[in-house]
Design goal:
The complex is a heterotrimer of chains A (about 500), B (about 150) and C (about 325).
Chain A: H1 2-14, H2 17-35, H3 41-52, H4 57-82, H5 91-102, H6 106-141, H7 144-156, H8 158-161, H9 166-181, E1 183-184, E2 191-192, H10 206-223, H11 238-241, H12 245-250, H13 252-266, H14 273-287, H15 300-323, H16 329-340, H17 349-352, H18 354-383, H19 390-409, H20 412-430, H21 436-458, H22 465-468, H23 470-502
Antiparallel strand pairs in A: 1-2
Chain B: H1 5-29, E1 34-35, E2 38-39, H2 43-65, H3 76-116, H4 121-142
Helix pairs in contact in B: 1-2, 3-4
Chain C: H1 3-19, E1 32-36, H2 43-57, E2 65-69, H3 76-84, E3 91-96, H4 98-105, E4 117-125, E5 127-132, H5 140-149, E6 155-158, H6 164-176, E7 181-184, H7 188-196, E8 202-205, H8 207-215, E9 219-225, E10 251-257, H9 263-278, H10 280-288, E11 296-297, H11 298-319
Parallel strand pairs in C: 1-2, 1-3, 6-7, 6-8
Antiparallel strand pairs in C: 3-10, 4-10, 4-11, 5-8, 5-9
Classes of the chains: A mainly alpha (about 500), B mainly alpha (about 150), C alpha/beta (about 325).
């Protein structure tokens, strides 16, 4: 069978001592990059490009890919411990991961993140190996109506993320939608809500919003207690440093969910790891027997998004390696790297450069194992960060937030925005507005508007196109059902009240 | 009559959001709603602006209707502490453009440790200097991640 | 040269030599900042880094040259940064068409390319007009005819309304009186995916992005957008050759300096990049990326900008963009 022989050949390439070292270097760098907010895999890969010119293509791409998926492993660390997303796709992990840490289960959360990442990352590579061509065809069949329906599905999840007050959840979502529309409209070059500031023409950076609302908002909330402020409980004893059997069992479905959702959404050129982690989280909550646990420290709430953002890497490599189409910043740079090496990523890559193609795929299997071995022992080490006294930890959190917000763009303006969003995050938590819908709206709003406008342009104004196409019709119906769930609950309560009043 | 902080908070935040919604709608009206090619830049903002106004007014209504059960009174000293810290943070960021990250962050850290957490001045000084230096060594120096610099180059 | 010219020439050289430091060569004393308006990994970033690496390898500079990323708002953040470094001879930037376009369509983009110090134009990026390989359309004329038969029904994918693809579309539509839709996608990957998936009918794309698809037989090239045919596509007509005489709208990349650069400094950089453009490494890069490496000097650049800006302004107005300057 062609795939089997290709893969064997790939392992032969990947297991060469030089390439194993590059794989390890990439994974290590990626983990560090993922942990530190302010460092992104895209920037790191770009910075290392000149170095890789001297390397042979297989080794080079193995290292760059290692950085790419390694970063997804590390991104959850600060999310769980400090409520600071290390990477934009780790923001969903903050929701339950940080809450688990507050309950003293930081080690368990970190462990679940690592394991979920391993399982999903491996599933992603298996997907890449076995079903890349049909998945690529599936990805191509996705057009703007399908993207719109997918975003609607994602937004319908706000209903599930709203906690107690649906009204406030929706308002939070709308605020997120507004914030993301600040900038320049793609279709007409019309600038929207920039208040005369040229710096806002490019829109607001997602990390600035996420770090401000989550990390700074949280710190301000904790500081209320003044000198009585407590840090997160440090997990004591080896048993508490890793997930227990019960938690792992609860995550069984989450591992699968994260893997498949991440892989499928990841292979869409317009998709992204952040979107897939939100959707995986939403699906997990929707099928859970105890949805009210989500947002309070449910282990599945960590496993699903973490898995999704790792399986996403396998998915994102599908269009890159089979069609030569990048989906996102990191894959775009890898594409340039491949081109500069003389490898031609595209439909013919598998035949013309089997060394690089299969070597890369094989190295991802190895890389996932390396990362699990690298990350699991680091869990107890990282959990020790919580030992720091509160008066050291809180300044450090401010510092990391500043680095995270400034590092991406190097603009003081972004720091000003960070201050503002910090206040917003604090106000929201005081007034009991859930912050997850804000982030969700921010992530999806732009893409959703674009997809709708593209769909209507393609169909020349015909809205029916959204329901005539099968995939988008299915997703829109699902979204509708999810949106109607609270209404069923409301009807039920009315019915019960009527019954008890009459009976 | 003391209304519950939460309820009052809902009224105020609802009003603010309603005002924002109105602002969004007026801005959206100044752009193209629907063009030859499809929905224009004013389309989406108009609709979520409308939704914002409707929902926030609903919130205000709900809050005004609900009984003032006072389930959580405002803990003003606590809020005051949080706002002080926020102000310190804002000031520190404001200074960063002039004094650079190192000094501004050290000042912030010192303030937090000495004033908010009420630790002795020496502890505050040590934490401030040590953490500022650590950040400087890790990020601009080791990882080439740039941080705001002041007149001294750091 | 006649005797009078020779005399004048000799005299001015002597004067120049005697005048001393005022006409001395510019020598950089600090690392040079090469500003780029994209983030790490973007097209401009890779372009600038490759150039920097080559200059470094060939030892054309006594100091380091480093790429400084100033992404945000298209070219506006980078342009603002460059203008803020007025009179600093160590700040240069890599410009493209949007450095001209952004100030025209954005009220808030106040830093114009014309205010900066033009150094050189390095490359022009050609483009290919492509359709799917299984499409019925085999030539540009067939596409135009099909669009004429069904006004507004055919679609092409591309970037924003101010992009080169749309500019070419506007010019063609004006010339032929035919209309087809333009669907914007934010990334190259999505644009190609839309074409491959059959959701749009045509696109105008960089050869480097679509080259592999063409080679694999998934896409067909029906015309080239360039003054002359690319060596990789000797049999495909240019738009002009196909019978549509539209003005050439080059998608260019070059170097400008911060405002207020002296003539000597500009001459220094111009010379530097001229040398760099002649190196084997650069030639290889240009060929591999399928660019057109025609070097345009500083003196010709400023009038070119003025003329080009005027042409773009008219095209953008016709395209329905709100031109504010």
């Amino acid at each position: 069978m062609e795939i089997a022989s290709g893969l064997l050949h790939g392992f032969a390439v990947a297991l060469q001592p030089g390439n194993v070292i590059w794989c390890f270097v990439g994974c290590l760098l990626g983990t560090i990059v993922g942990i530190m907010p302010g460092l992104g895999p895209a920037a790191t890969i770009a910075l290392l490009l000149p170095l890789t010119f001297k390397m042979d293509p297989a080794g080079g791409i193995i290292m760059l890919a290692g950085i790419y998926y390694g970063a997804k492993y590390g991104g959850s660390t600060t999310s769980i411990l400090l409520n600071i997303p290390g990477e934009s796709s780790s923001v969903v992990t903050c929701l339950d991961g940080y809450q688990m840490a507050r309950k003293g289960r930081a080690g368990a959360a970190l462990g679940i993140a690592a394991i979920a990442s391993f399982v999903a990352g491996t599933v992603g590579v298996i997907g890449l190996t076995l079903v890349a061509p049909p998945v690529a065809a599936f990805a191509l069949s996705f057009s703007s109506p399908e993207y719109f329906a997918l975003m609607c599905l994602g937004l319908a999840l706000v209903v599930l993320l709203s906690g107690t007050s649906l009204l406030k959840g929706l308002l939070s979502l709308l605020l997120g939608l507004w914030l993301t529309s600040i900038g320049t409209d793609l279709f007409t070059a019309q600038s929207r809500f920039i208040f005369g500031q040229a710096t806002l023409l490019g829109g607001i950076d997602f990390m600035v919003v996420a770090i401000g609302v989550f990390a700074i908002g949280e710190v301000l909330g904790s500081v209320e207690a003044g000198e009585e402020a407590k840090v997160l409980p440090v997990p004591r004893g080896f048993r508490n440093l890793l997930p227990n059997a019960e938690e792992l069992k609860a995550c069984r479905f989450a591992f699968l969910n994260g893997s498949i959702t991440g892989f499928l959404v990841g292979c869409l050129p317009g998709g992204g790891a952040t979107i897939s982690s939100f959707i995986a989280y939403g699906i997990e909550k929707a099928v859970s027997k105890h949805p009210e646990q989500f947002g309070k420290g449910a282990p599945e709430g960590v496993a699903a998004p973490e898995g999704a953002n790792n399986a996403d890497t396998g998915g994102a490599l599908v269009p890159l390696l089979t069609l030569g189409i990048p989906s996102g910043g990191s894959t775009a740079i890898m594409l340039s790297a491949l081109v500069l090496w003389g490898v031609k990523p595209g439909p013919l890559m598998m035949q013309e450069s089997p060394d690089v193609f299969w070597g890369l795929v094989a190295s991802m299997y190895i890389g996932n194992v390396v990362l699990l071995i690298l990350n699991l022992p680091l869990v107890p080490l990282f959990a020790q960060i919580l030992r720091l006294p509160v008066y050291v930890l809180f300044p450090v959190i401010f510092g990391i937030s500043i680095v995270g917000a400034y590092g991406a763009s190097g603009r003081m303006f972004d720091l000003g925005l960070l201050v503002g969003f910090g206040l917003l995050g604090y106000a929201m938590s005081k007034l009991k507005y859930p912050s997850a819908p804000l982030i969700l709206g921010f992530v999806l709003g732009d893409a959703m508007e674009r997809a709708l406008r593209q769909s209507l342009m393609m169909s020349q104004g015909d809205l029916m196109t959204l329901v005539q196409r099968p995939i988008s019709a299915i997703m829109l119906s699902l979204a509708l059902v999810i949106l109607l769930i609270p209404l069923f609950g409301w009807f039920n309560r009315l019915r019960l009240r009527a019954i008890t009043e009459n009976g | 009559m003391l209304r519950a902080f939460l309820k009052k908070g809902d009224v105020i935040s609802g009003a603010v959001l309603a005002a924002l919604g109105v602002f969004i709608i007026t801005q959206a009206r100044s752009w193209d709603y629907y063009t030859l090619d499809g929905p224009g830049p004013g389309f989406f903002p108009f609709w979520y602006g409308v939704a914002m106004v409707v929902l926030s007014l609903l919130l205000v209504l709900n809050a005004a209707r609900a009984d003032g059960d006072g389930d959580s009174k405002a803990d003003w000293p606590a809020t005051g502490r949080a706002m002080t810290v926020w102000l310190a943070f804002a000031l520190s960021v404001g200074l960063m453009d002039f004094l650079g990250f190192l000094i501004s962050f050290a000042l912030l850290a010192f303030f937090l440790v000495a004033v908010v957490f009420r630790r002795p001045f020496t502890t505050a000084a040590v934490v401030a200097v040590a953490s500022a230096l650590a950040f400087h060594l890790i990020f601009p120096v080791a990882l080439s991640v740039s941080l705001p610099t002041g007149p001294f180059g750091f | 040269m006649n005797r009078r010219e020779l005399l004048v020439g000799t005299a001015s050289t002597l004067v120049a030599g005697a005048a001393g430091p005022a006409f001395a060569q510019f020598k950089p004393s600090r690392p040079i900042e090469f500003v780029v308006h994209g983030g790490p990994g973007s097209g401009n970033d890779v372009f600038a880094r490759t150039l920097t690496t080559i200059i470094d390898q060939e030892k054309l500079l006594p100091v380091r040259m480093q790429v400084v990323n100033k992404p945000g708002g298209g070219s506006t953040s980078a342009a603002a940064y460059v203008v803020s470094k007025k009179n600093d001879p160590h700040v240069i930037a890599c410009f493209t068409n949007i450095w001209l376009i952004d100030p025209m369509v954005q009220e808030a983009a106040t830093n114009k390319l014309m205010d900066m110090s033009p150094i050189a134009r390095l490359v022009v990026e050609p483009a290919l007009v492509v359709v799917r390989a299984d499409s019925q359309i085999k030539t540009l004329k067939e596409f135009i005819d099909a669009a004429k038969a069904k006004p507004g029904a055919l679609k092409m994918s591309g970037g924003s309304i101010t992009s080169r693809e749309n500019t070419v579309r506007q010019l063609l539509m004006q010339l032929t009186g035919v209309r087809w839709a333009f669907i914007s996608f934010p990334s190259g990957g999505e644009r190609i995916a839309a074409l491959l998936g059959g959701h749009v009918d045509m696109m105008i794309v960089d050869p480097s992005e679509a080259g592999e698809q063409v080679r694999a037989g998934k896409l067909r090239v029906i015309a080239q957008v360039n003054e002359r045919r690319l060596p990789a596509f000797p049999d495909i007509p240019t738009i002009k050759e196909a019978g549509y005489d539209i003005p050439n709208v080059p998608q260019m990349r070059g170097v400008v300096g911060a405002p207020g650069m002296s003539a000597e400094t500009i001459a220094f950089y111009e010379d530097l990049f001229l040398k760099a453009s002649k190196t084997a490494g650069w030639q290889k890069f240009v060929n591999d990326s399928q660019l057109d490496g025609e070097f345009v000097k500083s003196a010709e650049l400023k009038p070119f900008f003025t003329k080009f800006e005027g042409e773009l302004r008219e095209i953008l107005k016709a395209a329905g963009a709100k031109v504010v300057r």
